[in-house]
Design a protein that fits this description.
The protein is mostly helical. It contains 8 helices and no strands. It is elongated.
Length: 190
């Protein structure tokens, strides 16, 4: 067992030994499924595009999610190629279908914190609600024994970083091309 696993497996085991119950066994797979392929967050971003007041937020979420897909799931997962905890510890009963991609960073956590982080830049009320959901999704990944705590931490850090980069990119484009944040996208200021 490597150094990280030596202190992370006990955390996952603590969750299994002290928090695991029939109720959470039913709820955690539902919570985790919200971030399957980022669909929940993508749908929220798309809905935001239809409303002038949330359009820029939706675009920022979309940019952040694309960055996470390309750099997080495409580059970082393959670069670190970390084995999943359920492949290291025997006897864990799956409550969901086991993922087959590398463990670091957690893609569910990454997408959730990209979306929640992007929302925080524009609307604290939406952002805080999204951060609560993102945190539940992140915890569900450890409860389900599919990610280590550092996978979750990596997902949070990179998710917030990609949200910030998305925010910078969208604001740069708005400024560069003279888009008014209150106007239709594509309508140039005169």
């Amino acid at each position: 067992m490597n150094f990280l696993n030596s202190f992370e497996i006990p955390i996952l085991d603590f969750i299994q030994d002290n928090l695991k119950c029939g109720f959470l066994d039913k709820v955690m797979p539902i919570i985790t499924s919200l971030a399957d392929k980022g669909i929940f967050w993508i749908l929220i971003a798309v809905v935001m595009l239809f409303f002038r007041k949330t359009r820029k937020m939706g675009i920022t979420m979309g940019v952040a999610l694309v960055l996470g897909l390309a750099l997080g799931n495409g580059v970082l997962k393959n670069l670190f190629n970390r084995t999943r905890p359920f492949d290291v510890v025997e006897g864990i009963e799956p409550l969901i279908e086991w993922p087959h991609d590398p463990s670091f960073p957690s893609g569910h956590t990454l997408a959730s914190f990209e979306a929640a982080g992007a929302m925080m830049f524009y609307n604290k009320k939406f952002g805080i609600s999204a951060l609560v959901v993102a945190s539940l999704i992140a915890f569900s990944r450890m409860y389900l024994y599919v990610h280590y705590p550092t996978d979750i931490l990596g997902g949070i850090v990179f998710g917030l970083l990609f949200a910030f980069l998305g925010y910078l990119i969208v604001n740069y484009v708005y400024k560069k091309f003279g888009f008014d944040s209150e106007s239709e996208i594509g309508k140039i200021k005169e």
